[in-house]
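quick one before i forget lol
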Amino acid sequence: MAVSGHRRRPVVALYERIADAVHDGTYPPGSTLPSEPKLAAELGVSRPALREALLLLQEDGLLSVRRGVGRTVNDRPPRRGFEQIQPLEELIGAGTPLRVRALLRTVEEPTDFTTQHLLAPAGAELRFWESLLTGEGTAAALSHEWAAPDELLDQVHPEFARALRTAAPSADTGDGPDGGGTPGVARAGTGGGSSSGTGPGAGGSGGTGAGTADGRTTRHGPAVSMLSVLLGASRETALGAHSGITATLLGRRRGEQLRRPADTPAVLVTQVVRVGDTPVMAAKHMLPTGAPTLPILQSH
């Protein structure tokens, strides 16, 4: 289910009302929900909106539909807002993690996407990472990842803030899917094309350079995704996440990065990771046709 911030769509607010009722025991595990007309009347909502919210609850594992019975609450409904969070490079690597090639590591101002999902105020500075995921010499996915402002992270997840500050800030400027070019330092304010959307990412083993204050580069360890950094810093911190999946086309810029035609069909995955109710990271992952299989059912 797509993540929402303070500006919730009506169906998302309705989803959360029903999920709250499940978790507080109003509709206990194993119980059957009222019929759609009755439930819509109880909640004061339209039946189309209720039907959409119920479908999302089924997809997220809270409800099941039993023929002749109706919608029932699962015996072990998943924790609200919880997904099995795993770096994309591992999730779609089929046992062999994909390599992460760092295309850009910079700082940028909020976009519409990050304003909505990270609740970033105007003028904030957000760390932005663009990465290409590759396997067997083929570009498999493109990832755009943003972290919440440092000031917020210092309050809600200081370990993640520290880990980001020590992560390599440079990017690989090589032209091939596997890199190989000269590492280059990405500076704040250099942009990053984040407004164009993007794809799955996350790391394994492609080497990159670490930037220095004066613009020089030094060799560093393997590139990783921002989500990998977050998970590594969260051994003592509980995380929650929501994702949304839509069909789209690559477009010119992303097609060039993934070495595919602009009209190639693709899956766009958006993801927001939270500590409690506070979003700390948001991402867009673009998987073109032919990319490794992405497991959809992640809740448990």
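fyi The first strand starts at residue 63 and ends at 66.
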